[in-house]
Design a protein that fits this description.
alpha/beta; 5-stranded mixed beta barrel; about 35% strand; about 160 residues; globular
């Protein structure tokens, strides 16, 4: 017969559990490339959810800090807009805004496998991941994960 006799030190076990919980909490809090999520939003499944009120500020923030935002998720609604020199799988998901008393389109360049099937000015809700790409210089591009056709909002303009 083999007998093992050992003592449990509950104080040490408790301290180890607290330490493990602190490490797990730190990993969860800072697990997104070492940075905390910048924007608080209604839909907590995404790092950025663009609305009429935050549209231009989030657009500016992401364009000015491309590298920090690579890999973050985004959700937005806008219309399909293309320039003649876009690649076949590129389009802009944009909204109208007024800049210097001029109506202009502001949005994100998007990469989507079926972009050629989209109709110009068609309204969509997209979700995707921010990547770094090139179009007349480095810029953030949304690699689309999901797209849904939607009805245009009552106000197609966003605040500047």
């Amino acid at each position: 017969m083999f007998v093992v006799n050992f003592k449990l030190d509950f104080k040490k076990i408790f301290l180890v559990c607290i330490l493990v919980a602190a490490i797990v909490a730190t990993i969860i809090e800072f697990g997104n490339n070492g940075s905390k999520v910048v924007n608080s939003n209604v839909d907590h499944n995404y790092d950025f959810v663009l609305t009429e009120d935050n549209y231009t500020s989030v657009l500016k923030q992401i364009h000015e800090n491309i590298d920090v935002n690579i890999g973050k998720t985004i959700k937005m609604t806008g219309f399909v807009f293309r320039m003649p020199d876009f690649k076949e799988n590129y389009f802009v998901c944009g909204r109208n805004t007024i800049v210097n008393n001029e109506d202009t389109v502001a949005g994100f360049l998007c990469e989507y496998a079926d972009a050629k099937k989209l109709i110009d000015n068609e309204w969509t809700e997209i979700t995707g991941v921010i990547i770094k790409g090139e179009y007349n210089g480095a810029m953030p591009i949304i690699k689309i994960g999901n797209m849904t056709k939607v009805t245009a909002p009552a106000n197609t303009f966003v605040n500047n």
